[in-house]
Design brief:
With about 110 residues, the chain is an alpha+beta fold. About 45% of the residues lie in helices and about 25% in strands.
């Protein structure tokens, strides 16, 4: 279900700061996908890791994300989520924050959403 993230040394660092909460998530841009650590995504949307994991699982079963493409593991952290997975999780708990994050991705990084 999860893929290993390769070539991390060639990735560009990105940081998103939520305008309403000032919470930050640091990510890495790999070609057309931005990757963010799972625990930071949970913090961004103000939820526990358990709640975030449940929502992520639901997003995979409903087809909102493709777990093979949108969830990866890395040597430095347990789990990375693509920008698409971040939005899918966020829409379930805070539509406004998820929409702002999506707009940031689309305008600042030119990443596709499907």
């Amino acid at each position: 279900m999860m893929q290993r993230l390769r070539g991390t040394c060639t990735m560009r660092s990105v940081q998103y700061v939520c305008a309403s909460s000032s919470r930050k998530v640091d990510g890495r841009l790999d070609e057309n996908t931005a990757w963010f650590e799972f625990h930071q995504v949970a913090h961004l949307f103000g939820m526990s890791l358990e709640q975030a994991a449940k929502i992520l699982w639901q997003a995979g079963t409903t087809g909102d994300i493709e777990p093979e493409k949108d969830v990866r593991s890395s040597d430095r952290c347990k789990c990375l989520l693509s920008h698409r997975a971040v939005v899918a999780v966020g829409y379930q708990v805070n539509y406004g924050r998820a929409t702002a994050f999506r707009h940031w991705c689309a305008s600042g990084m030119t990443v596709p959403f499907r």
